[in-house]
Amino acid sequence: MNENHEASLQVDQNGKLKHLITLEGLSRPVIESLLERAERYGQEPLSIRFDPSQSVALLFCEASTRTRMSFSLAAWRLGYPVVNLEPDRSSLAKSETLEDTVSTLEAMGVRYLVLRHSQPGIFKTLIDSPGRTIHCISAGEAHRSHPTQGLLDLLTIRQHFPDLARLSVAIVGDLAHSRVARSTFTALRTFGVSDIRLSAPPELAPHPGDFQGAPNHTLDEALLDVQVVIALRVQTERLTDTPTINPSHYYSQYGLTSERLRRCHPDVRIMHPGPIHPGMELAPELINSRRSLIREQVRNGLPIRMAVYEMLTS
What CATH number is attached to the domain comprising 156? Predict the structure, then answer.
C-alpha cells in the first residue's frame, strides 16, 4: 500500500477527516480549517467541560518531548482524559501485535490513538481495518511524515509571512531522514509556496524521487535572499548506512551562523523542529535571537494538536 492510498483512507466518502497520518493528499480547505481552528485556540479563552468519552491514548515507540507533551496538554485543555502507554511495559513487550493493542483500546472506548513509530507504513493496517472506530493520529512515522509538525510550521510561517505565494523558504540539513521536512514541504506546496530550496550534504541528501523531485542546492544557493530558513536536526539515530557525522565538520559546512545569514533576506527568520544540536545545526546565539521562530513553533504545537482532536470529533 503506497502513501497516496494511505492518504485516501484518512477521509471518508464525504471528505471528512477520520485520521491524520500524512499531509499528502489533504486538500487546502481541510488544512485551512485546521489552521483556523488553531488560530482561535491561540486567541480565545477556553471553557472546558470534562468529557470522558473523548479519551486519548498516547503510544510513543520513539523518544519525544515536544510532540508528546503538546498532544497530552492539548487533550487535557479540551477536557479529554489521557492514558500514556509505555511500549516496554505493555503487552507489546509480550509479542502482542499493534493491531491487537488498538483493538483492545477500542474495546475500552478509547477515541484517539496518538502513535509515533519508526516503521514505515505502520498505520496502513490500522486505518484500513473494517469497523475501525478509533481515530489514529501520527506523531511521527519513520522518515516519512510528521503531519502536525508540518501544520505548526505552516501556521508559524503564515503568521509572519501571510503572502505565501511570494515566500522563499530554505530547508537545510538531514533531508534523507527528516519526516518533518517532508511534511512541511508538503504543507508549503499545498499553500502555493513555489520557491522552496533544499540543501543537504551529499551523504544526507534525499532520494531523487522525494520532495517532488526538487533539486538539492548548495548552501550558498539555498540561502541567497531567502526569507525563512528551516534547519533540520541531524538524526544520528537513523544513520545506519551513513558514517557518523562529525559535528564540527558539519557545522563548518552546513551550520547556520550569523555570517551565513548575511546572504539571506534582511528580515530572514529561522526555524528548527528540535531538539537542537547547538554548535552543529545552529550557532548557539541564533537559537533565541530576534530572528528565531523556534519558541513560536513550540507554542503553536499546542493549538494545532487541539484543532486536530476537534476536527476528528466534529
Answer: 3.40.50.1370
Distance (Å, whole) CA 47 – CA 27 = 30
pLDDT per residue rounded down to tens, the chain (314 residues): 466 667 788 988 888 899 999 999 999 999 999 999 999 998 876 767 899 999 999 999 999 999 999 999 999 999 999 999 998 889 988 889 999 999 999 999 999 999 999 999 999 889 988 888 999 999 999 999 999 999 999 999 999 999 999 999 999 999 999 999 999 999 999 999 999 999 999 999 998 889 987 889 999 999 999 999 999 999 877 766 656 788 999 999 999 999 999 999 999 999 999 999 999 999 999 999 999 999 999 999 999 999 999 999 87
| Rounded distance between C-alpha atoms, residue 313 and residue 198, angstroms | 36
Enumerate the H helices of the chain as residue ranges. Answer: 3-8, 28-43, 66-78, 98-107, 124-127, 147-160, 179-190, 219-223, 247-254, 258-261, 284-287, 294-313
* Structural domain boundaries, residue 105: 3-145+299-313
Number of domains into which the chain is organized: 2
Same domain for 66 and 132, yes or no, is yes
